[in-house]
């Protein structure tokens, strides 16, 4: 498994048994009903990755910079608890604070361990086809507890039909053409976009989420809490902006 130097966030990855045997520092915070363990897991490889692999011409972009000086790319899984915590504690505010100064690109990397990750990615990509990816991205994450967590809070939600209805509600709320959305959400076009993200992520060395790259270099934090992770990521972005 590729090395990850972040002792705070063990990303949701593909080999839980191996992760549990690793020597890690685990910090407990609230997530499913009570406690989320920020996991430390597999991520992208060491060194730089080509910009063409990390960002396709049709990749979803939350904010853009006219000079293209700094590009942040996040491979994410919408049902991943660590991705949700990164969203709440790190990336949502970076998106706002660096608007117009960086490109912030998101790529799909739904993991098999999260049963609703694929339906969520499909909803986001269907919205993207109507030019409202950003609005759906925020709706999915802002309502994460509503659709991603099972009643009682002790497990992930596992009902695709229910989640699909919830995502349709978000789609209606952001003003999508619902007839088109219903056609797009299960289309080959949407699935191919997700599959391409997955393939590119795998080629880039991604095996868990969230995995973040800044100008092609994987971001690995040594922070002991989300605030420190946030400051380290901002420091890396600022360093690249000053070059």
TrEMBL record:
Q: Which Gene3D superfamilies match?
A: Glutaredoxin (3.40.30.10)
The family database entries (SUPFAM superfamilies) matched by this protein are listed as: Thioredoxin-like
Q: Which UniProt keywords apply?
A: Disulfide bond, Membrane, Oxidoreductase, Redox-active center, Signal, Transmembrane, Transmembrane helix
Domain called Thioredoxin: residue spans = 18-235
What Pfam families would the database entry show? Answer: Thioredoxin_4 (PF13462)
N-terminal signal peptide: none
Protein name per its UniProtKB record: Thioredoxin domain-containing protein
């Amino acid at each position: 498994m590729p090395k990850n130097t972040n002792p705070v966030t063990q990303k949701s990855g593909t080999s839980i048994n191996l992760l549990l045997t690793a020597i890690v520092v685990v910090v407990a915070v609230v997530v499913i009903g009570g406690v989320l363990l920020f996991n430390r897991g597999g991520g992208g490889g060491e060194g730089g990755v080509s910009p063409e692999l990390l960002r396709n011409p049709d990749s979803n972009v939350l904010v853009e910079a006219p000079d293209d000086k700094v590009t942040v790319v996040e491979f994410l899984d919408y049902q991943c608890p660590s991705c949700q915590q990164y969203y709440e504690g790190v990336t949502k505010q970076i998106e706002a604070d660096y608007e117009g100064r960086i490109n912030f690109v998101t790529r799909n990397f739904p993991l098999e361990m999260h049963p609703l990750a694929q339906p969520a990615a499909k909803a986001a990509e269907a919205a993207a086809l109507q030019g409202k990816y950003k609005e759906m991205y925020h709706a999915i994450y802002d309502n994460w507890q509503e659709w991603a967590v099972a009643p009682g809070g002790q497990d992930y939600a596992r009902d695709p039909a229910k989640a699909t209805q919830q995502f349709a509600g978000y789609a209606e709320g952001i003003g999508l053409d619902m007839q088109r959305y219903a056609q797009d959400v299960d289309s080959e076009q949407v699935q191919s976009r997700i599959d391409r993200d997955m393939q590119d992520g795998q080629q880039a060395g991604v095996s868990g989420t969230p995995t973040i790259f800044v100008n092609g270099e994987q971001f690995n934090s040594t922070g002991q809490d989300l605030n420190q992770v946030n400051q380290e990521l901002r420091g890396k972005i600022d360093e690249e902006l000053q070059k």
